[in-house]
Sequence to fold (1262 residues):
Amino acid sequence: MSERTIAKSLNKAYRQVGVDKLLFDVFKQQLRMFYDQISTIDTEEKLKGDLMDFLKLAFYGQSYKVCPNGRIDCAIHLGNSIEHPIGVIVEVKMPTNAAEMITKDNLNKKALQELLLYYLRERVEKKNIQLKQLVVTNVHEFFIFDAQEFERVFYSNKKLIKRFTEFCDRKLTSDKTDFFYKEIAAEAIESAKDSLTYTWFDIRKYKSFLDKGMDRHLIELYKVFSPEHLLKKRFQTDSYSLNTKFYSELLYIIGLEECEEQGSRKRIIIRRSEGNRNPASILENTITILDGEDWIDTIQNRASYGKDREEQIFNVALRLTIGWVNRILFLKLLEAQLVKYHKGDSSYAFLRPQFIPDYDELNKLFFQVLAKRPHARTEVINEKFGKIPYLNSSLFEISELERQTIRVSSLDNSELPIYSATVLKDERYKRLPTLRYLLEFLDAYDFAGEGSEEEAETAKTLINASVLGLIFEKINGHKDGSVFTPGSVTMYMSREAIQATVVRRFNEEMGWNCSDYEALKDKDIEDYQRANAIVDSIRICDPAVGSGHFLVSVLNEMVHTKYDLGILLDCNGRRIKKQNWHIEIEHDELLVSDSDGEPFIYVPGNAESQRIQEALFNEKRRIIENCLFGVDLNANAVNICRLRLWIELLKNAYYTKDSEYTELETLPNIDINIKKGNSLIHRFELKQDISEVLKKTGIAIGQYKDAVSRYKNAHNKEEKRELEDMISAIKSTLRSEINRYDPKIVRKKQLEGELSDLQHPQLFEFSKQDKLRQEKQMKTLQAKIRKLNEEIEEIRNNKIFEEAFEWRIEFPEVLDEAGRFVGFDCVIGNPPYIQLQKMGDGADALQKMGYKTYKSTGDVYCLFYEIGLELLKPKALLSFITSNKWMRADYGKQLRALLATHYNPFRLIDFAGFKVFDSATVDVNILNVENSFPSKHTLACSIRKEGFDITKLSDYVQHHETECTFNSSDSWVILSPIEQSIKRKIEAVGTPLKDWDIQIYRGVLTGCNEAFIISTEKRNEILANCQSEDERKRTDELIRPILRGRDIKRYGYDWAGLYLIATFPSCHYDIEQYPAVKNYLLSFDIERLEQTGKVHNINGNKVKARKKTNNKWFETQDSISYWEDFSKPKIVWGEISDKSKFAFDFLGKYIPEATAFYLNGECVEYLLTALNSSVSEWLFSKTGITTGVGTIRWKKYTIEQLIVAKPNYEQQKEHLAAFENLKAGKMSISDFKSFSNNLMYNIYGLTQEEIYAIENVILQIC
Fold:
């Protein structure tokens, strides 16, 4: 048995969250009443009622249903009705019932046996995967078991589950509960009791604290009963979710707002709408000054900020604004640290409005205080800001953009109206100077990052670095297709990647053969210095780094891994031992506690406290400097990533002994590891040999590495500038010389030499035939040279190459002494999701890079997979989370082939139907790939359950992954063993629809549905406007009934009374023959209908024409050469649907619209049956492409891949008879569905177990 105290059982991050005083007072009041009620106990029923009253009135109120449920004494539901799943099961016993109540010495009593039965009924019978906690109590003693413990100990016990199922099916000698308790539960508990972990406390211990007003000692009791603990509800500082109040008001002060992107459900950040802009917001203030004083004209590379002046001004202003706000937020975190280090001394709170009254003083703080050591500051500055330390951070150096434009001191101190939902309590103010407003707003939150039980009773909401990262990722990322990855995902991916990488590196360096991380932990590591050097030599890169979330998670994981392996050392080489200190990662935060579970608090000068703080700071600094690298195209993202890493160091900043604990240790210049550039564009190949270049230039890679290393710890601006110039000169020289060895330039010189030889005067005169041959050779060479010149000039002049990132030379840490690119040990991240079709010229440049995975209809993340894999060392690891469309979509074919034939994809997690990102409607997957020969075996897991708890991702994967084989470019589908059996049977007798004699077409794309798709009333009006019977007849034939995707149901459709003006270009209609139609279409303005792609200005409004084609203004956008097929019998279906909905247009009456598809050809009646069957629906649910909102895309490519068996003569005959009965109304759709399912089950020869597996999936879909 493993007993835990409340302190050790509470989430460490939750322990540091402040308690709202009003809620805490309610809790104390209800606790006092609860003590009074249980002081006299009459019956068990009264006891249960008292407990439920306490829980309801103290915490759960109207939000959660607390009540008995069947035989369960007390259940806490995950919502306010019994329809919601049960989250907590409580078994209650009388205090006098010692025979049944469990004790710390004996868990195997009836109370726990009953609890186990109720758990199994919920978990097995009701398939409730949302259970959080299980409790046994006699209202004095409480035993709380985490549901994950029951999952680990009992649910994974196959023998127990089998016996429970037999008990429920009445297959055992008795179906009485006493039999279950004694014969089944007792045995299971007995075998597991020594490994079962629980939290124990006695509530009577806290009564004296309540009576004496010792509130600090009651906080842990408050938290153990709270929904945040019992129901694992997200709490204030949860880095997995956004603090919307803080976020919304900060956006308002900046001058931004969030809205839904047009044409998608994605939430994006934009400049506030024109009517809602306020000139006093930081952004608008900046825009006004940039525009009014023409600062935009002074920027050297102004074109990189946008296509026109308005966009350029906005982007420059946004970058400046984010830079200033970055500094302020960093300073707010610094201020909180200083106040905490000095036990609440408010004289260290320097970001007060009275201290920083205006932007001039803020500018002074940036550059005259934080950028200078105390002895270099003026006397006046030191008098006011003497307690603020020098940090040596380039965050407080004037940026290049500030040098070219304005500084924060240029802003005017105008007043901003207070946000309507402000956090500020003082209602006297309706408006405030913006800077004062911002500082008071920030002061309303707690930035301490790590609280303690003593500090917990505060109403301030805690804001940590992860929340700030999330906010700025949202501000920056929407244009780049990037989204903020939840902390639970970055934690899981980082842990898996770091552990695998650490195992590989130890095996390589030590000559070991550890199969996994647990095997490495079992090793007796004696040389701690060498072990640390191995971990410190690991190089990890995020090629689309964004806010740096992955790198922060990796940083925490690397520190934790050293601790976990027992090799974490202090600055004197002494181990930080597990028996003295606990280091763990909770909610994406690295948390340290002592052996009693109390959070670590830094006390400057205290020997042990100083030792731990210094160890953590230096460990983080070493890892950031040596191990972490990032690249991003967005300059704002790069700055935010650097900020996030500085903040991680700031958390463990310490006062130095040399300064007698008055000055903080300075921060390193980590900006050199996080660089701006386009990861996908480069001029120099990774394998290009530069040994000759190094010889010729005299540059040694060691010299380059040394300069970079010295730069990271440069102690003053002069030294830093000198090293910057040296590094820049080295890179410039390498670029110039490598460029001379560019294969294109080398080839051009070779061809020019050949041409020169031919042009050189010859000693003997050539024959006429030889002259002709020579002239032909010269023309060929001139053409080749001309083409190479064009390609070389295009690369030199192409704007996209201005952002090129030269992986070959940018990070000397991944080059060996001969200059060879060695590669990274791990590439990790969440690359952007942008359709290449939407990238314009950028996509053309990417195509010219020669990516194997490039496809014009594809997505940029596929290219990130390819470049990421190329950046790896042999046997190194890539871990990406991306859209999962590549697994099945046509555009993912090249990527699937690349992975299957050149690399080893060893783990794949598909979130098919589970929404991971709050801000993006996209289904995603996590893929781990090793740069080694394919093993043909991938551990895979598909997560589709709505109740899935993403914070338990690791446990879920461990229990649900199955081995799959992905060895080709065919669709990658994750299937359980029984599902693999079903698929094999289907493939054995079936044929992909692409190999049937059928045709599949998309419906009609008009380019302007409001004009070409009309109602019945409008059709009748057009016909009434015809001037003759001939025109009316022609027009009637032109206007055809149309079906939209949403109109189509299974076996039928609900026609909406809509018609299509079917002016297909392939029919070559003369619009003059249809004057009524012409007049109607012209009512929409010919500029809107013309197919030129132009934008017109009509009455002050921008009107965009349809996309450019060769078609006429009155014609549909698609040519529709197959228009005659519309009149034939056909199967129709909608592109997007939650389940299979195929209908039959018997008479060929309807034309499908662009959101629908149709099929005609052989055996269409049988194919309708097959496509609507449960077998096909099951198969498509596995192989189809999901939308991210719970539906599937039934597109042509995926339908063509669908495998359907052709029936034999008897089966076809049987089917035809049933189908005729359906058409004649002699068989209901329900009966026909049952018939068709049984027919398909027989055709494929499926077993009852396989049929059950299919129908279980269909049940979930429905």
